[in-house]
Specification:
By secondary structure, the chain is an alpha/beta fold. Helices cover about 50% and strands about 10% of the residues. Helix 2 links the parallel strand 1 and strand 2. Helix 2 runs parallel beside helix 11, helix 8 packs antiparallel against helix 9 and helix 8 packs across helix 11.
Length: about 240
């Protein structure tokens, strides 16, 4: 029997739906323009949703607000999964795991502290069955960290190619782009703005990310890569 015949006889895998709770418009655009084409090959539909109610969307990342959105999505779409795409930098202090995470040094340790605490709290509030359809993810430390995956493309994306060495110098000081720290003065976005005051997240963010490409971002940002891998493996 030919290989082509084997392929024809294999049943098509059903599409799975994943609702992505996004902190802001840039993350929403990133999901639509970069993640959806990628996940389409894995027969996964990703649907971004801005955090919060109509008229009060984006930002203000408190646990109750995230829980409300997760509960609504799980209830209204009982066969779908839900994931989060929110920044560690903007999370409220009372968010599960945040106080512990701030005492830890590496991005990986901080991420795991928040994600594990969030999942445990969701299991308490929603029950283990519903919580099992949630894939928590926290962007370390904010979306702009991903943009440091390629200093050349970061500089070119803001039409300032001569600035790439300054961005590269920042990246050189850290193990990965996700380790670029999150204080008020040194968060990734603040570092970009200190070099180029014209940087605007909604205007430039997705443009730069598209120039870099998903493969490069995954190669340099292991937590982000792990998140996509977990979604790719959903049953």
């Amino acid at each position: 029997m030919s290989d082509s015949a084997d392929v024809i006889k294999q049943p098509h895998r059903r599409y799975r739906r994943v609702h992505v709770i996004c902190e802001g418009q840039t993350e929403e655009m990133f999901v639509n323009l970069m993640l959806q084409p990628h996940f389409d090959a894995h027969r996964i539909e990703v649907h971004p949703k801005l955090l919060g109610e109509i008229g009060r969307r984006g930002g203000n990342v408190g646990y109750k607000r995230v829980l409300t959105d997760i509960r609504l999505l799980l209830t209204h779409d009982p066969k779908a999964y839900v994931t989060t795409f929110i920044d560690f930098y903007g999370i409220y202090a009372d968010f599960p795991g945040v106080s512990q995470a701030k005492k830890l040094r590496t991005a990986w340790e901080r991420h795991d502290a928040v994600v594990n605490a969030l999942f445990a709290q969701l299991a308490d509030d929603l029950g283990e069955e519903q919580a099992g359809r949630v894939v928590p993810y926290i962007q370390m430390h904010e979306f702009e960290g991903l943009l440091f995956s390629s200093p050349h493309d970061l500089a070119s994306g803001i039409l300032q190619p001569h600035l790439w060495k300054k961005f590269d110098k920042i990246l050189f000081a850290f193990n990965t782009p996700e380790d670029i720290n999150d204080s008020i003065e040194t968060a990734p976005s603040k570092r970009i703005q200190n070099i180029f005051r014209g940087y605007r997240k909604v205007l430039h963010g997705t443009i730069i990310a598209k120039r870099i490409g998903l493969e490069r971002i995954r190669q340099t940002c292991p937590l982000f890569d792990e998140w996509l891998y977990r979604l790719e493996q959903l049953p």
